[in-house]
Amino acid sequence: MSEVITPSRTRRWRGGLTASASQLGVLAACVLLWQLATVGVQSPFFPTPVRIITEMWQLWFSGGLGTLFLTEAAFEDVLPSVGRLLLGWLLAALVGIVLGMLLGRSGNALAYVGPLLSFARSIPPPALLPVFMVLFSIGFTLQLVTITFGCLWPVLLNSADGARSVDPVKAETARAFGISRAHWFVSVVLPAALPKIFAGLRISLSLALIMMVISELVGASNGLGHAMMLARDQFDYERLWAGIVLLGILGYLLNTALSAVERGVLRAVPR
Amino acid sequence: MPSMLEVSELTHTYPGQQAHTAIGGVSFEVTAGQLTCIVGPSGCGKSTLLRCIASLVTPTAGQVRLRGQPVRGVPEDLAVVFQDYGRSLFPWMSVRGNVEFPLRSRSVPRARRRELALSTLERVGLSGAEDKYPWQLSGGMQQRVAIARALACEPALLLMDEPFASVDAQTRFELEDLLLRVRAEQDTTILLVTHDIDESVYLGDRVLVLSKSPATVLADVAVELGQQRDQISTRESELFVRLRGEIARTLRNAPQNRGEGDHDEAGEDEEPGEVDSSGEDRADEPALAGSDSTGSERGSTE
What we know:
The complex is a heterodimer.
Chain A: H1 9-41, H2 49-60, H3 72-104, H4 108-122, H5 129-135, H6 140-164, H7 168-176, H8 181-218, H9 224-233, H10 237-268
Helix pairs in contact in A: 2-10, 3-6, 3-8, 3-9, 4-6, 6-8, 8-9, 8-10, 9-10
Chain B: E1 3-14, E2 20-31, E3 35-39, H1 46-53, E4 61-66, E5 69-70, E6 78-81, H2 85-88, H3 95-105, H4 110-123, H5 139-152, E7 157-161, H6 169-186, E8 189-194, H7 197-203, E9 206-210, E10 217-222, H8 233-236, H9 238-253, H10 275-284, H11 289-299
Parallel strand pairs in B: 3-8, 3-9, 6-7, 7-8
Antiparallel strand pairs in B: 1-2, 1-4, 4-5, 9-10
Helix pairs in contact in B: 3-4, 3-5, 4-5, 5-6, 7-9
């Protein structure tokens, strides 16, 4: 009695497999080139990828089973960073989505604060770090504020944009049926805005990583950024590179996780 | 019969550089239980009239009374079926979710909501489809969901804006008969806007004929075809043929209120999918992403 359109699962799955196989091939080739180049150059500033990975392993992931292979240094360097990053990002997500949706549906309000938002968004957050250092004592609050401030704007602006794009017929339907304000926002505006909200969340997640490192370069006694500063001061370039590679991996994993969440949510909330 | 709806001297002018008067003083009364069809040429302001009655648009002048009470704000015991089912249903809610949605805001308890939704869906012939999503259904079935959603609210007044204009002829007949059947069961007062003269005569107890914009009531035709109607024999009957001829002549011989240019002004005409967006867009969307998305959705109206 109805046609359900679902693209063939198996085909998509197989496509995913071949794609990831060739992706791995490209990655392996690049790492191999990198290895050859660094072996050839023999510079203390450019250790080989094999040495970097060995360093990462020894430094952070050679712990016992009890700590899931994490070393003490991992608890000192990696976990606090990831914690701050996620907390700051989630805070920005919460504030950005709620405020953005309200602004997006408020008609004139967005027009009034639009230039202000563009201004705030245009300031590179690292430039505000000295100001934040005056406002908040160096430490956890400073890091959190820096990350949240950096992450807020993409989420807020995208949420506002998404909320604005609710189909006028749906808006009229909701009005005609006397849908309450709470239901309107949760069951109509939010689902309609979800794709844009996720676009904003993705941008801000990569910003969160950047802001995390920057905030730790100046105001932290632990964390990856702090560890990398120390490594630089001690001319320990293997450790510095280990940090760089770990940041890359971290960013990749976070983005993959968010994409998976996005796919799940958008499938559960069709449009 | 008590009066359900009273519209007196309703006038609406869309503001703007080329201010466009869509309705020019319309008065009529609808008694409880009556199915009134409003028929008029494209662009005459029928939809605007319906939106004024539903308080979706605030009329420039005139008054709307529901059960004797002046209407301020969208009345609670009112339900609307829009032409564009594809855009009026919520794709992220199941069929049952769509039907239950207005009831949630009316604080109907969960168990009662479920019961109401399932029984209403059964009445519109959609038993078994409650867990599907609207986009998994055909156009006709989607409009049945929209009708079920309106009926589940047990409205005192049901407004329908060209409800069958976007489905094929066969489905249209089915939906017309469905409407007559549920109406007989539930005894709802219905105001239905259409541009189709045959449909207005087939469905209505009475047909209000509107002029070109600014709309005025040209004629108020009683349709005494009885409660039992049949798509074939009713349409063949002498009375049906006479009434549709009468209405068509009224429309053709109507004095021209304005020039031909009416259509273009302010864009507030009745063409499918255009009515709603233009008003809303101008009201609160300064146009950025909004214009983009409405544009693409407008294309998928059929």
